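User: I need a structural model of Restriction endonuclease from Pseudomonas fontis for a docking pre-check later this week. Nothing fancy, just the predicted structure tokens so I can convert them on my end. Input:
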Amino acid sequence: MFGNIDKSKGYLFSSFSLQDILTEQTQKLRKEVEAFDANRLLNTAPEDLKQYLVEKYYVEPLILRRDDWYADTAEVQVDVRYDSGRFIRDTGRPVYVPGERVDVHVPFEGDSELFYAHANQFSSSPPRAMVSKTDLLFRYDSPSDAPHSDVRSSVERVLNEIEQYLGVQRTMIQIYNQELVNLSEQCIEQRRARLLAQSDRVLALGIPVKRREDAPKTYVVPTVKKKAAPKLPPASTAPFKPEPTWAMDQYEQALRIMQDMALVMERSPGAFKSMNEEALRQHFLVQLNGQFEGKATGETFNMSGKTDILLREADRNVFIAECKFWKGPKAFNEAIDQLLGYATWRDGKTAILVFNRGTDTTTVMNGIDAQVKGHHNFKRVENWPHESGFRYMLRANDDVGRELILTVLVFHVPD
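Assistant: Understood. Predicted structure tokens for Restriction endonuclease:
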């Protein structure tokens, strides 16, 4: 990952600055975002692109697996010309005697080249060891006629010193890795904002725009040395067309209106005791139309079927929701498919309202979560703390690069 390093002398934590390397990594991330084909970037879900960048530029800290260390021995010829206990007149050439070699291997996890990176705190007399891709090697040669040295104590002493260096390294790397999420998100959003503003200015011209002949038609992901390159999220490089979106605050407002209906049900259980899905849906529509100027409609045709609640802005479908009584996991999974069948690229925000009558709430909640996470369109769980609901991100049926927010709310309906 970090280039070629002179390892011949075996000194650790002294070849280059870790801070310089981490700074270089952030610069590479910024440059990669700026180098993306504009349409490729705009057609890729920002969250997917962020995860790709975080995975690619994540730095794995070194961890010594000291419990897995092992040793091996071999007979060797030992050069004793510099042994002060022996009288050797000519030290200009080797003097060999029979001896023993003990090699102690200590496995580790992480990028081996980090052993040569010094953190903000380091010493002028660093520890020494031989480094392979998977092990630290400590080698001890001793003549057969000499007292045996305490190899274990020597290795443990050096390992303790190495651990101190790694501890400082890990702190720096942890800070860097934590900042990767915000950095990736910031770089993506800044470039998207510039590209969208540029697109708006071009549209305002009212003049056809010719695609440059030298514009890239595909994007090739560069490989990362010594690290498996994450896959760039699938997306089209076709010209990006800006699409209308419903603001999240309006989406949240619509959900709050529907959640308030739970309080109404609790306060007037007798009025809702015998209602079916259609009657319950009408109550939600009345409340939504009161807040959104009569734009919420029921049983409105939308693409391949009918959806229970559809909210339109001008000629755009901006919110769709299904109302379903809980009839088990299989029926709920069919409701997800039904909702996705209705959803077009204009429908970025969706909901399923689950009416529960007579089933244990925990059973319903567990069934919902399992069915959504097991669905082939599931992408991730969104952070949305709620005691009787979930929020997920799904991919659209016709385009893996398009995302749909699905919020599921559970309402207890009196028996």
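Before docking, keep this in mind: Residues 1-6, 215-226 have pLDDT under 50 and may be disordered.
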